[in-house]
Design goal:
The complex is a heterodimer of chains A (710) and B (141). With 710 residues, chain A is mainly alpha-helical. Chain A has 33 helices and 12 strands. Chain B has a domain of 92 residues: Potassium Channel Kv1.1, Chain A. The chains are: A mainly alpha (710), B alpha+beta (141). Chain B: It comes from Caenorhabditis elegans.
Chain lengths: 710, 141
């Protein structure tokens, strides 16, 4: 949204004042400019208005209108304001100020306030309210929504402000309107989300013969939404009523008919979320969400008023209407829908909204915006009618929403599907935001809540499909990611039983964990080992097995010595024993035996005697076969980390030494350079003269030495 | 009051200065060259309008751009005969040319980005911020 020139210029001046660069000390700001510049100063420095007051010293300001919503006031500010003849004051939430009532009273002595907004969580005493009424005889507009009032207090309250034209006591807790008849000049009255037990509690309402606008709306989460029933039960009429807001109240067609008959003089009636269908034709303008067009009209109305709750309801209903239109292949104004969504997100930043869970039908807090949900529906069915600019904006909006939290809300998944759709259609997707979502989903796989886990799995599964796979594979993980993102992707790909995508993700993990101790620890910590071993059984694919075994090898190699038996357990060893019987591939067999060897090398020889014996026997048994075949596994890392050298020097296990000799053979056969490096190495003599006395080792040593004499 | 202490006269529609009288011959030799007539300024639904600063700088802008100012919108939405006859020209006695120029820039900026969710910032030089604020108050834009 484009700021007005007034706001922009005032902001520029405010910035000069804020930075101490304003040089026109003699300039006398007029009233309108003063108000505007002060408002901009508050936006620059909302934490402590006292700082602003200091900066204003020496400047000629004429403040008549101030708004301290979202601003921390200081007692000194009240002193400043007493020097001005205020006409309008929005206090905001100033509970932190001690003796607030005292400062307010002092301010009111020098003011001629006609508009006062005390809405929020502040509390005011009955005595103070009475005094305020006496101090502000010109007060015409008063907003105390959210300020808790008891019924007796309300009676006294009405006595204190007899000249009000507009009053807002929404959410203040008053359940009996006794005393309101004293406000005979009242034209506007807002009673949002107040609950009345019977018609008797609101009968005095009908004494307000000049009332023009009445708001009896309810939040849809309230179990008691029968204020309109109470209103009609009074069997009376407000003769001057022109605008009646009933949204959120439970109504039926009989009630609506009665209302239209008794109050035929209404200009506008709002019945959004009233569970009643608006009549097709009526001389009264009826705001409802009965149809797509009426929903658009209602949305525009509430958007203009910045009524968040009603706006959200309109978007909910619009989404349903649009969904039906999509199902019937019917056209509608897509651009208008997108524009309204963007405007809503701009005017009404997303906040916590109470809503019914569509899965378990219970209350919970949702952080997802209904606008984003609505946009997702449009994307999935009307992408071709979106402009390029809009698709980019929508993608960002959806990413921001999904990235917030995965909860029991299928809308997050719908939004995600829309994101994937946008990406597949060529829209740029921010990798960092995508990474955040993936990380969140990966962590959610172990949430403990099956619904959340399933949702996370579905989202991750969609990541490893088609073009999206290439996108996710390009994501660079960082050390700050608590849960390895690719582990989540791999789990999803395995869940999908897609060998190709599983292997692609696994290859990325293989590269990430190669010679990277920290990364290996992260994967180990998050249960990678069990998942990897179970993955071997899922696919009968040699390339897949080689990658999986490569990762397991990396994890075992990098694991701490004292924890290796926890990482690669005897149970897993037995699983490998069974697999080894069926595998004829030398590469797979060699990798598996390498894992055994690394496990042996990590382990103290005095522990796990059975495992050591079995592993040693396997290594001995398979050595002759592997020695006679070509193996293409990369073995450089064993030399880079000195594993082979260490085994030759210190190991007393025949099988382990045989593996080391086999590895040397594999390494030497890769290239002439490798062969020469072994021959020239300082451990070559260990190959010629093994330190353990074993006929098998001696024969193996001779076979390996042959390579270097060839 | 503006900073000069005089009453803020704001702007007014130009009156028709052509009273039909012929200038004396003695003045013709030293007379300023006649301005080149610009098409598009005629009539109540002209494509362009003209804004003139107090130092006689003329800014011709599209009518739709001028309409982004509430004050100008009200003026041009209910055009008088004089306004149309004066080629839809508005004189600003309180605005210098550099201020009026910046105002025109803003009106064009707002026209271009009014429906955009993301608009580039409109930069205001510090030295004209005060005058621009006064102009914004007057033009209601």
């Amino acid at each position: 949204m484009v700021e007005s020139l007034k706001h922009t210029a005032a902001a520029a001046i405010a910035k000069l004042i804020h930075n101490g660069h304003f040089n026109s000390k003699s300039y006398a700001f007029d009233q309108e400019s003063s108000n505007e510049v002060y408002a901009q100063l508050l936006r620059l420095d909302p934490q402590w208005s006292y700082n602003i007051d200091l900066k204003l010293k020496g400047l000629s300001f004429i403040l008549t209108k101030v708004n301290f919503e979202n601003v921390e006031m200081g007692p000194q500010t009240f002193g400043l304001l007493t020097q001005h003849n205020l006409k309008s004051l929005v206090l905001g939430n100033q509970d932190e100020i001690p003796s607030l009532e005292h400062y307010m009273s002092r301010l009111f002595r020098t003011s001629q306030i006609d508009h006062l907004d005390l809405s929020g969580r502040s509390q005011f005493s009955t005595a103070w309210l009475k005094t305020t009424g006496q101090q502000l005889p010109l007060l015409r507009t008063l907003n105390v929504s959210g300020v808790k009032l008891l019924n007796p207090d309300f009676f006294q309250f009405c006595k204190s402000f007899p000249n009000l034209y507009s009053l807002d006591i929404s959410n203040c807790g008053v359940t009996i309107l006794t005393g309101i008849s004293r406000l005979k000049n009242l034209r506007h009255l807002s009673l949002r989300s107040l609950i009345y037990e019977s018609w008797y509690d609101i009968r005095e309402l009908f004494a307000l013969k000049l009332l023009n606008v009445l708001d009896l709306s309810m939040h849809s989460t309230h179990h008691a939404r029968r204020n309109m029933q109470r209103f009609l039960d009074c069997k009376q009429v407000l003769p001057e009523l022109r605008f009646l807001e009933c949204s959120g109240n439970l109504m039926d067609e009989d009630m609506l008919e009665e209302l239209l008959i008794t109050h035929s003089h209404l200009h506008q009636l709002a019945i959004v979320d009233c569970d009643v269908k608006a009549p097709k034709s009526s001389p009264i303008r009826i705001l409802s969400c009965t149809t797509f067009d009426s929903s658009i009209t209602a949305l525009k109305y509430y958007l203009n008023l910045k009524r968040r709750n009603e706006v959200q309801i309109c978007f909910q209903e619009l989404r349903l209407h649009v969904k039906r239109l999509h199902e019937r292949k019917m056209q509608y104004d897509v651009t208008e829908c997108v524009t309204l969504s963007l405007q809503s997100l701009e005017k009404l930043p997303c906040s916590l909204i109470m809503n019914f869970d569509i899965v378990e039908e219970r209350l919970f807090t949702s952080r997802l915006s209904f606008e984003a949900d609505f946009l997702a529906e449009i994307v999935l069915h009307n992408f071709h009618r979106l402009s390029r600019v809009h698709t980019r904006l929508i993608c960002d909006i959806l990413l921001n929403n999904v990235n917030r939290q995965l909860i029991r809300d299928l809308r997050a998944e719908t939004m995600w599907n829309a994101i994937i759709y946008l990406f597949n259609m060529g829209v740029f997707v921010d990798k960092q935001k995508l990474k955040g979502i993936a990380s969140h989903c990966a962590a959610s796989l172990h949430n403990g809540d099956p619904i959340i886990e399933e949702q996370a799995m579905r989202i991750l599964t969609s990541c490893v499909t088609g073009k999206t796979l290439e996108l996710v594979l390009s994501i660079t993980e960082s050390k700050h990611d608590t849960t390895p993102i690719c582990l989540g992707f791999l789990r999803a790909a395995l869940h999908k039983e897609d060998e190709q995508s599983s292997r692609r993700v696994a290859e990325k993990i293989l590269a990430a964990t190669h010679n990277n101790e920290e990364e290996c620890k992260r994967y180990i910590k998050h249960g990678a080992m069990n998942m990897l071993i179970s993955a071997i059984d899922r696919f009968d694919s040699e390339p897949m097995h080689i990658v999986i075994l490569g990762i397991i090898r990396n994890l075992v190699m990098m694991s701490p010595y004292d924890k290796v038996q926890q990482i690669f357990t005897c149970v897993q060893f037995r699983t490998f024993q069974i697999l080894l019987r069926n595998w004829t591939s030398s590469d797979r067999a060699y990798l598996m035996l390498s894992i055994f060897a690394l496990r042996l090398n990590h382990q103290d020889k005095n522990f796990e005697c059975v495992f050591r014996k079995c592993a040693d026997e396997l290594l001995r048994k398979h050595f002759p076969y592997l020695l006679a075949t070509e193996i293409t596994v990369d073995v450089d890392i064993y030399f880079d980390r000195g594993i082979v050298q260490n085994i030759l020097r210190t190991s007393e296990e025949v099988g382990l030494v045989l593996w080391a000799l086999l590895t040397i053979k594999i390494y030497a056969q890769k290239s002439l350079w490798n062969s020469r490096s072994i021959r020239d190495s300082n451990f070559f003599y260990l190959i010629e003269n093994p330190h353990i006395a074993s006929e098998v080792v001696n024969v193996a040593s001779e076979n390996v030495r042959f390579l270097f004499h060839w | 009051m503006d900073k000069n202490g005089s009453a803020a006269g704001g702007f007014q529609a130009a009156s028709n200065k052509d009273d039909g009288l012929e200038e004396p011959d003695s003045q013709k030799t030293g007379a300023k060259p006649q301005p080149v007539p610009i098409s598009g300024l005629e009539g109540p639904r002209s494509k362009y309008v003209k804004l003139v600063s107090n130092d006689d700088h003329e800014f011709i802008i599209k009518r739709e751009v001028a309409m982004t100012s509430k004050s100008l919108r009200e003026l041009f939405a209910n055009p008088t005969v004089d306004l149309a006859a004066a080629n839809n020209t508005v004189y600003f006695s309180d605005f210098q040319s550099h201020i009026l120029q910046k105002v025109c820039h803003y009106l064009a900026y707002k026209t271009k980005y009014r429906h955009s969710r993301v608009a580039p910032p409109f930069d205001i030089p510090p030295d004209i911020a005060m005058d621009l604020l006064a102009a914004a108050n007057e033009l209601e834009c």
